[in-house]
Amino acid sequence: MVHLRINGMWEVYDLSHRLSIRKGSRLTEMEGAVNCVTPYLRDRKGRLRIFKIRPIGHITNRTLFKGGIMAITLPELPYAKDALEPHISARTLEFHYGKHHNAYVTNANKLLEGTDLASASIKEILQKTAGDASKAGIFNNVAQVFNHSFYWQCMKPGGGGAPSGPIADRIDAAFGSAEKFVEEFKTAGATQFGSGWAWLVLKEGELAVMKTANADTPIAHGITPLLTVDVWEHAYYLDYQNRRPDYLSTFVDKLINWDFVNSCLG
Ligand SMILES: [Fe+2]
Known about the structure:
Blueprint: E1 2-14, E2 26-35, E3 38-42, E4 48-55, H1 61-66, H2 90-112, H3 122-129, H4 136-153, H5 166-175, H6 178-191, E5 196-203, E6 206-213, E7 224-230, H7 237-240, H8 244-255, H9 258-264
Antiparallel strand pairs: 1-2, 1-4, 2-3, 3-4, 5-6, 5-7
Helix pairs in contact: 2-4, 3-4, 6-8
The chain binds fe (ii) ion.
Fe (ii) ion (FE2) is lined by residues 96, 100, 148, 230, 232, 234-235.
């Protein structure tokens, strides 16, 4: 049993039907105890109650994992499904988030159940299973859960354009200019053969652009992600068909959430 303090805004779901806290109520801070898969939170009288908790708003999976909670969950989208239109349609998000991302969550939990990784953090799972062919199913599904949860937060309605905040100076220093960074980032996305991801990362303290194939993810290699764009066809095919470069340009010009990128700088 691990004790921790959970900060931030949370939605609370009643699984035991014996809760004194109303289903769906939001708490700003709770002290609780976590027993591997199922979170237990104490109510006001100190009684343990079973909850399913999900992050809302901009709270990242990374925040959850700092507390050591095993939480392969489908986080709420940080915006409505039609909020990114006309750049990414509600139909794309219905499939991409509602079907693809959701399936990775379901599969990951099924594959992890009863294994010695069931209580591990996502980062731990990925670092322990990377390159192990016998654990490829776990790696692929857990990595895709992380990648998608991260990707949703990299976008916002009315986003995109020139970098702002501390990341702007870091990009100028690392790449020479924002334009050069954009060129490198879009090239990484356009040249990733088949499915994968393009990233802005912090590697050994330096900013860098990288691409990963299929489900592969920087955190499996000890590299800190700051920004990502999904270049699997399911991310853009309904809206852009085969025009991946157009999707990448729109992502950069209209969608990037630089506030989130800054928050990842730490
Ligand atoms: Fe995807």
